[in-house]
Amino acid sequence: MSVNVVLGGTAQFVVGGTLYSLAGSMKVDPGGVVRTPAIGPSGPTGNWTEKVDPPMIEVEIFDDPAISVTALRDTVGVTVQLQMKNGKAWLLRNAFVADKIDVDTVAGKYQIKFSGTSCQEILA
Predict the structure, then answer these.
(1) All domains of the chain, ordered by start, with CATH?
(2) Could you give the dihedral angle defined by the CA atoms of residues 101, 104, 109 and 112, in that order, rounded to the nearest 10 degrees?
(3) Of residues 116 and 9, more confidently modeled
(4) 63, 66, 103, 116: most buried, per Cβ within 10 A?
């Protein structure tokens, strides 16, 4: 007997205690170590290099007339929470806006990317 489980779809997005209206895509990169194969003149060496990839949460939100995009762009040191329909949540701590914000004035929405010091995955 199979059990139907919600895997994605609707979500809630909270920055520093303020709930924002999601308009579309949501992406989470929990960060961590990225390993790159070390390749020598004769091919793969079996070794690698490592670098730390910062955690990121990127979402598309509606351009709510009550929310200042300029103030949001200056956001630093907040907790960002993405609560998924499947019960899983992501907490990005000490977060800051990590890229410019381009408002699509025709669609009334924009992408915003946050980075932080750590990203915790909370399972359902």
Answers:
(1) 11-122 (2.40.30)
(2) -20
(3) 116
(4) 116
